[in-house]
Design a protein that fits this description.
about 475 residues, alpha/beta, Arc Repressor Mutant, subunit A, pyruvate-formate lyase- activating enzyme, 2 domains, three-stranded antiparallel sheet, about 40% helix, about 20% strand
């Protein structure tokens, strides 16, 4: 498939379309999205769900561990986190996590291994080096790694020590994601996250000493005080450090979730048009530097597996972001963790105390879930194709599900004609379509047309999602 680097998105076209397409919409790390999940699960019901999963040696487990702790509050952040410097909280967390790991392992059939591990947060390196080592020992005891596992972690350069890096190397971590956001001092002051280029450069050098560690940087566009000039400097500083991957996220202004963001409305928060300009600037700068555009918000160097996965149709999307992992069941641990299973989704209690008490009382801490219907799975596949490949082949849908794509999604395809008229996609007679470079900027909007739950969510009112641009 042709890379998005071949033809940059046309700025004037997108500026003209922005008023009609800039709306609230999901990021589709799952389908259905979490606000649709209404099923309440007991611990025993969750055990039955786990016990019903079919073990397959060819599809090892993926394991996600949510470490919720942060030392300071970053004002842009809407993640589930606990801001604390109390040493006893991580100790209690690790004890509870050990119990949860053992309970899930005992409920699963067989003794399958795990091929993908990811520590997210929060800030996993909020844990001391010894605690981080303890955590991974507990994870590996319940889920032994496969022969060539991907083991990744999100780190905050401000709190990550050389001793942490020693543990990561010794434990086999081969992908590290660093939260950068922006290097501009004025932006950092506004978002309450100060870190220097030299701090990051030191960790990059340290990570590469082992010779087998991929590096990802997280950047955010649309933050307070960002301008094209200031963000251009940040982009060049990032390019100079040459991470293997870059995740470029649009700032999600969700004040109903993150109350500390309300202060941004009183300072220089970029307008929708300015946000678009920042995004296009980043795409142009990164692709000019040799990065391949991946999905809606990732970039990778040509020799990275994420870039190689595009023409091979190996790109997947889940709660850990874009991945090439062939793993099957995704098992999540820690407060608010979401397990993505072949049967549906299960989310754990979001509050740290509630999660700890539930695990102590019942061994598991399910909060809500969703059993995916056959139609859910069909639509999930379509949305994944749009979000990952930027195209959909009607023949592939028919071969997979035994249904004609054109007739099954006739109403959705009628709506897609407006996208075609606006130059956002190329539509074929059988219903197949491919997003254009401009359309890739609005890929969430195209995916939303196939979301059967979205109309009801909109009719119920309330705010659920960030803006699509």
């Amino acid at each position: 498939m042709e890379s998005a680097t071949s033809t940059p998105p046309d700025r004037k076209t997108l500026e003209a379309l922005l008023p009609r397409y800039d709306m609230a919409g999901p990021r589709y790390t799952s389908y259905p999205t979490a606000p649709s999940w209404q099923e309440e699960l007991t611990a025993d019901e969750y055990r039955r769900v786990l016990g019903s999963l079919t073990e397959a040696e060819s599809s090892p487990y993926a394991v996600y561990v949510h470490v919720p702790f942060c030392r300071k509050l970053c004002h842009f952040c809407a993640c589930n986190r606990v801001v604390t410097q109390k040493p006893e909280l991580p100790v209690q967390y690790l004890q509870t996590l050990g119990t949860e790991l053992q309970e899930v392992r005992s409920a699963l059939p067989g003794s399958g291994k795990a091929g993908q591990f990811h520590l997210g947060g929060g800030t996993p390196t909020h844990l001391s080096p010894n605690q981080l080592e303890e955590l991974m020992s507990a994870v590996f005891a319940s889920f032994p790694p496969s022969e060539t596992p991907e083991i990744s972690i999100e780190i905050d350069p401000r709190v990550t020590l050389d001793a942490h890096m020693d543990v990561l190397e010794a434990t086999g971590f081969n992908r590290i994601s660093m939260g950068i956001q922006d290097f501009d001092p004025r932006v950092q002051e506004a978002i309450h996250r100060k870190q220097t280029v030299s701090e990051v450069a030191h960790l990059v050098e340290r990570a590469r000493m082992g010779g087998n560690c991929g590096i990802n940087f997280d950047l955010i566009y649309g933050l307070p005080h960002q301008t094209e000039q200031s963000f251009s400097r940040t982009l060049q500083q990032v390019i100079d450090l040459a991470p293997d991957r870059i995740a470029l996220y649009g700032y999600a202004h969700v004040t109903w979730v993150a109350k500390q963001q309300r202060g941004f409305e009183r300072i220089d928060l970029p307008s929708p048009l300015a946000r678009l300009s920042l995004l296009i600037l980043a795409i142009e700068s990164l692709t000019r530097a040799g990065y391949i555009s991946i999905g809606m918000d990732h970039f990778a160097l040509p020799d990275d597996d994420l870039a190689r996965a595009i023409p091979e149709s190996r790109l997947h999307r889940n709660f850990m972001g874009y991945t090439t992992s062939p793993c099957g069941e995704l098992l999540a641990f820690g407060p608010s963790g979401i397990s993505e299973l072949s049967s549906g989704f299960v989310q754990s209690q979001r509050n740290l105390k509630d999660w700890q008490e539930s695990v102590a009382d019942q061994g598991l801490a399910p909060f809500r879930g969703h059993h995916s219907s056959p139609e859910d799975k069909r639509r999930a596949w379509v949305i994944s194709q749009i979000m990952c490949q930027g195209e959909l082949r009607a023949s592939a849908f028919s071969a997979r599900f035994g249904r004609e794509f054109l007739s099954h999604f006739s109403s959705e395809l009628e709506h897609l004609k407006a996208f075609e008229a606006d130059g956002l996609l190329d539509l074929e007679a059988d219903g197949s379509f491919r997003m254009t470079p401009a359309g890739r900027i609005l890929v969430r909007n195209a995916a939303m047309l196939f979301d059967a739950y979205l109309p009801k969510q909109k009719n119920q009112g309330g705010r659920l999602f960030s803006r699509t641009v």
